[in-house]
């Protein structure tokens, strides 16, 4: 078969979830909550179905939802996107990311990817015929950071796009205003586009503000800003997200979107639109997850794992060199089998073999789940 992605296997998340089931392990691998969403949100979707919202919605998304998204971005980040021309509802962030890449990357174009990187960027670049240019994050005593000088040095006349992700999966690091200034300086005077994956935008801790690319007047002019309701409302299985982009970019995005999925399921869009009228659920999310982060960190503090900073997302990265010298993928499997706790090896987020002795745990779990995992992790 002359297929397009011969080197791509099953995602590490699926593999580790399967292994967790096989060994009866607590699954802190794949990122998803093990608790339910707000019943009010389910009720709103139920109402939408009963009200007959069950046929195709407009190609770009239900107008009330696009309005609610535009209003939220304006309130939080100060940029007023035109809901009709600049917001498109997508089938999760994954489809937004893939369509943004497919509509803008030509064969041979280079796309700078900061690694470790979430796993859906590289296959999308490959399908577009683009050339990924990986730049490794710096990892030191104080955790992960983006080496902007190396990002700048990676730019060539063929660079078409730079992908950024904050809060960052898997490292839990965040970009701050100063990072965005460095990025702006790198792209100034070029036609490089920005793809900003902000699916964890409402999970930034310790009183810090999410530095959205939408907030940056210069970067926003050339950016696809992507988010996902799966993360924000504890409904990863619903696969509803969106992209905000200047009108000219949205026109091109929608050309791909309309033949990729055409539309996104209607009742969920109505339900989410109604639910967004109250900002409390996303405004309360940082405190909700910070409590879980602190519970998990406090539990690991007395263990032989070494905690890395966790400024955002629902992930905690740890070094395990005091416990084992296995490579990350082997250690994650060993942990699942022997300690009955599943984790994700950070090496899975690199395009080249990279061992840092670090694995990722997801703390989007009931406190009792976290405590059960901790009991076992503390014994190692
Ligand atoms: N980007 C990042 C960084 C993610 O962690 C995820 C979720 N795993 C996605 C994109 C995809 O989001 P969705 O499930 O809404 O497609
Ligand atoms: N984004 C989730 C994670 O990082 C996984 C989503 C998936 O399984 N593809 O764990």
UniProtKB/TrEMBL annotation:
One of its GO terms (molecular function) is transaminase activity. Keywords: Aminotransferase, Pyridoxal phosphate, Transferase. Residues 26-376 form the Aminotransferase class I/classII large domain. InterPro entries: Aminotransferase_I/II_large, Kynurenine-oxoglutarate_AT, PyrdxlP-dep_Trfase, PyrdxlP-dep_Trfase_major, PyrdxlP-dep_Trfase_small. It comes from the Bacteria. The keyword Transferase applies. This is Pyridoxal phosphate-dependent aminotransferase. It comes from Massilia consociata.
């Amino acid at each position: 078969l002359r297929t397009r992605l011969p080197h791509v296997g099953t995602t590490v998340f699926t593999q580790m979830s399967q292994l967790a089931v096989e060994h009866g392990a607590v699954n802190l691998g794949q990122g998803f909550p093990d608790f339910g969403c707000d019943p009010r949100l389910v009720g709103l979707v139920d109402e939408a179905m009963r009200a007959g919202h069950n046929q195709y919605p407009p190609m770009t998304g239900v107008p009330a939802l696009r309005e609610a998204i535009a209003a939220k971005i304006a309130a939080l980040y100060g940029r007023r996107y035109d809901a009709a021309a600049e917001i498109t509802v997508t089938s999760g962030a994954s489809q937004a990311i893939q369509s943004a890449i497919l509509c803008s990357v030509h064969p041979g174009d280079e796309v700078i990817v900061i690694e470790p990187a979430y796993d859906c960027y590289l296959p999308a670049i490959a399908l577009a015929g683009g050339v990924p240019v990986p730049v490794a994050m710096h990892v030191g005593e104080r955790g992960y950071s983006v080496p902007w000088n190396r990002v700048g040095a990676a730019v060539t006349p063929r660079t078409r796009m730079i992908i950024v992700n904050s809060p960052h999966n898997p490292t839990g690091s965040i970009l701050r205003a100063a990072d965005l200034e460095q990025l702006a300086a790198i792209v100034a005077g070029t036609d490089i586009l920005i793809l900003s994956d902000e699916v964890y935008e409402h999970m930034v801790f310790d009183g810090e503000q999410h530095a959205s690319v939408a907030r940056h007047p210069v970067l926003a002019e050339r950016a696809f800003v992507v988010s996902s309701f799966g993360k924000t409302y504890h409904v990863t299985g619903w696969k509803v997200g969106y992209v905000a982009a200047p009108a000219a970019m949205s026109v091109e995005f929608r050309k791909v979107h309309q033949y990729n999925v055409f539309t996104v399921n209607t009742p969920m869009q109505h339900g989410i639109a109604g639910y967004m009228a109250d900002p409390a659920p996303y405004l309360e999310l940082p405190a909700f997850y910070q409590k879980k982060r602190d519970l998990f960190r406090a539990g690991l503090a007395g263990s032989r794992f070494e905690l890395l900073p966790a400024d955002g997302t629902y992930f905690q990265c740890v070094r395990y060199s005091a416990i084992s010298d296995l490579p990350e993928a082997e250690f994650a499997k060993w942990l699942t089998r022997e300690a009955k706790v599943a984790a994700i090896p950070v090496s899975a987020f690199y395009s080249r073999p990279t061992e840092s002795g670090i694995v990722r745990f997801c703390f989007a779990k009931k406190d009792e789940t976290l405590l059960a995992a901790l009991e076992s992790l503390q014994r190692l």
